[in-house]
Amino acid sequence: MTSPGSSGSTPPRHIPSWTDLGPRVLSAAVLIAIIATGLYFGGYVFAGLAAIVFGITYREWEQMVTLQPLAPFGMVLIALLALAAIVFPFYGPIGTLAVMVVAAIVSVFGGRAAAPWRAFGLLFFGALLIAVLAMRGTDPAGITAGWYLGIVIALNDTGAYFVGRVIGGEKLAPMISPAKTRSGAIGGWVIGMAAGTIYWVLFVHSPWWIGLLFSAVLGLVGQAGDLTESAIKRVFRVKDSGDIIPGHGGFMDRLDSVSFGVLFLFAVGALHGGIGNVAGGFLNW
């Protein structure tokens, strides 16, 4: 019989923890309902929702890169970011880009140490605003594209959560994000890819293999976005960008995967269908 201290002893059994499952499910349901409403109405409603979401997200970024509570100067930058979203229905991408360039210039006067991070954050969030609002556009195809993106990313994240908790195993990038496992990354990618392909076959009138390809790429770029945000948080030694969403952390923690995904969708759609037909350019082949 093998002694407990010998090399042949049985390794401790991996027991997953589900203490955060309830808050995560409830928070996800509320977020889905809000985003679905914005997608349905589009136009000023969706732009207003984007102004709120990105304003909250930049607040988290501002506090992270300054390592200080939100100051009046940060509130000015948040207001400019919100304005950039609101002007989109009136002036399109040019109007949003113009406001964000002004915001990036203003950010330079808020302190030398944080200026590069502020300017980068504003320009990046500005690019995301343009991508998100142009994807929705004014055509019903924007709703289809938005749901497709959300399903691929959400099922990728959810699949990674469950597979990683159940199987465990070797860490994916322990120096960047200690909680993520390779099993979770692979499992989430497969689940998100399958869910996206099924949605594509049911609701998109283009070859199934294009949906499979896009779902696979979106899963990978979504995970890249997640790891990128984790790496930035490591620089500033913060665990979560915020605590506004129970079980999830901050808005930045929820938008990291979506960020890279919507930029990919925007790039493909704009190149194929033009800046005024992003959703149609992405979906119709």
From TrEMBL:
Q: What is its main location?
A: membrane
Q: Report TM segments.
A: 25-58, 70-88, 94-110, 117-135, 141-163, 184-202, 260-283
Enzyme class comes to transferase
Q: In which pathway does it act?
A: Phospholipid metabolism; CDP-diacylglycerol biosynthesis; CDP-diacylglycerol from sn-glycerol 3-phosphate: step 3/3; Lipid metabolism
Which Gene Ontology cellular component terms are annotated? plasma membrane
Q: What is its EC number?
A: 2.7.7.41
Q: Which reaction does it catalyse?
A: a 1,2-diacyl-sn-glycero-3-phosphate + CTP + H(+) = a CDP-1,2-diacyl-sn-glycerol + diphosphate
Q: Does the keyword Cell membrane apply?
A: yes
Places the protein is found: Cell membrane
Any single GO molecular-function term of the entry would be: phosphatidate cytidylyltransferase activity
Q: How does it sit in the membrane?
A: Multi-pass membrane protein
Q: Which UniProt keywords apply?
A: Cell membrane, Lipid biosynthesis, Lipid metabolism, Membrane, Nucleotidyltransferase, Phospholipid biosynthesis, Phospholipid metabolism, Transferase, Transmembrane, Transmembrane helix
Output the GO biological process annotations, alphabetical, semicolon-separated. CDP-diacylglycerol biosynthetic process
Organism superkingdom: Bacteria
> PANTHER family per the record?
PHOSPHATIDATE CYTIDYLYLTRANSFERASE
Q: Which family is annotated?
A: Belongs to the CDS family.
This protein is called what?
Answer: Phosphatidate cytidylyltransferase
